[in-house]
Specification:
The chain contains twelve helices and 18 strands. By secondary structure, the protein is α/β, with parallel strands linked by helices. The strands form five sheets. Strands 1-2-5-8-9-10-11-12 form an eight-stranded parallel β-barrel, surrounded by four helices. The two termini are 24 Å apart. The model has no long low-confidence stretch (mean pLDDT 96).
């Protein structure tokens, strides 16, 4: 289980590798982060007629063996500065994740054989030519090059547009030399999940078309909370291989008017995504203090242009000085820290889960369309009984009090025989409650 913090270094602080120091890492560790996804490190096209925005997209790679000069204090020593960033991240006990874009490169890239066309409207790219065996060799060599620099994992862009045979060959080949390397796939077809994990070898997959889409529909359109259960049931044993999130660079900011419009409404969704099933979780920089991207287009922080999101600026100042965040943003950050700190508890990080919604649909105060309840439990060493925690998520505007049923089949487990048949619990509007039993 990973807690991944995604950040575009160019919009954090002064936009330099050196901004990531002990203060920044201590801040991440206060949220129980285990890995940093430094987005937009590898050198992309900039200043060319075809480039979208200024300085351009991190997904239009010009030189796969270089980093962006603008990220370095001394551009001529940019690779040395990147290696020092990797070293500092590791010294803080965190993993380093960077982008790997196997589907396309920039029109001016000479690293990799490419076609003379692009997918969709990605006119600042050209598709990698996998009909050429040299492309296979080059794309493998690229991953090994960055692994040799100390990179611990790769977020792999648009993997469903890349030949699966290549991906399987690539991942197995890399893991023979670097067994601990993490491959995270950006995948959207749920029908592909099993194959990409079990056959191709990805360690984590976006659950965008599952949990993210369901949670967004619940929050924005009043869809049924029952869909959380349906998604969990459909994934079955694949659930721990998912990467859950409410934000990333492709999606609208949660606090923006195009999504929830209120950062404080995130907590039932965060609890369902982070605490229910042992999946890994991703936080997008600024999310934890309610960044709403008012300067962006339709609630997205731009990945194409120079931008300085105001709330992210204030967050950086807070990380440096302990000042700069208004009281409501500090309260939000405190709740994020509280929630993600729970993942240090073995009952959440290693335990089993039990969906309690089916046996509480007629309980007074429990709304099966708005409330999501579950139990996490784990048998602890040298203890005869398991530790158990009840979690209740409330996706509604009203607080609620209820008496939750714990069914006989759950209490029939030897380690859970001590559980009561009913437990009283309350929850605030758009919030979650945790009760240690």
């Amino acid at each position: 289980m990973e807690v991944i913090y995604q950040v575009l270094p160019r919009i954090w602080g002064k936009g330099k590798f050196s901004d990531w120091d002990s203060k920044a890492f201590n801040y991440l560790k206060s949220q129980n982060v285990s890995a940093v996804w430094y987005t937009g490190v590898i050198r992309h096209a900039s200043g060319r007629p075809y480039v979208k925005g200024d300085p351009g997209s991190p997904y239009s790679i010009e030189d796969y063996h270089d980093v962006n000069p603008y990220l370095a204090d001394v551009p001529e020593k940019r690779m040395e500065e990147f290696v020092r960033l990797v070293r500092r991240t590791h010294q803080a006990g965190l993993k380093v994740i960077i982008d790997y874009i196997p589907n396309h490169v920039s029109p001016d890239c000479t690293d990799v054989p490419k076609c003379d066309y692009c997918d969709y409207d990605w006119t600042d790219t050209r598709k990698v030519d996998y009909s050429n065996p040299e492309a296979w060799r080059k794309m493998l060599e690229i991953v090994l090059y960055w692994a040799g620099k100390g990179v611990d994992g790769f977020r792999c862009d648009m993997v469903e547009l890349v030949p699966p045979e290549f991906l399987k060959w690539l991942i197995s080949g890399v893991k023979k030399l670097y067994p601990g390397i993490i491959f995270i796939g950006e995948a959207y077809e749920k029908s592909n999940y099993r194959r990409y994990i079990k056959d191709l070898g990805f360690d984590l997959l976006y659950d965008k078309s599952g949990l993210y889409d369901y949670l967004r529909a619940i929050i924005c359109n009043g869809a049924s909370v029952r869909n959380i259960t349906r998604n969990w049931q459909s994934l079955q044993e694949l659930q721990p291989d998912m990467l859950n999130f409410l934000e990333n660079h492709d999606e609208q900011r949660f606090a923006s008017p195009w999504f929830a419009g209120n950062a404080g409404k995130a907590f039932p969704a965060l609890a369902a995504g982070a605490l229910f099933n042992g999946a890994s979780y991703m936080i997008y920089a600024g999310q934890e203090v309610g960044e709403a991207a008012p300067e962006g287009v339709e609630g997205r922080t731009s990945i194409f242009n120079w931008t300085k999101p105001e709330t992210l600026e204030k967050l950086w100042r807070y990380v440096r000085t302990g000042k700069g965040l208004a009281a409501e943003r500090l309260k939000l950050l405190s709740k994020y820290r509280e929630l993600f700190s729970r993942l240090s508890d073995p009952v959440f990080s290693e335990g089993f889960n039990y969906d309690l919604c089916w046996c509480n649909s007629v309980v007074l105060g429990f709304d099966p369309e708005k409330h999501f309840a579950f139990l996490r439990y784990k048998r602890m060493p040298r203890k005869r009984k398991a530790e158990a925690v009840l979690v209740l998520c409330n996706f509604s505007d009203s607080p609620s009090e209820m008496r939750i049923n714990l069914p006989e089949d759950l209490r029939a487990k030897k380690e859970l025989a001590w559980l009561p048949s009913k437990v009283d619990i309350g929850v605030g509007a758009w919030d979650y409650s945790v009760l240690h039993l």
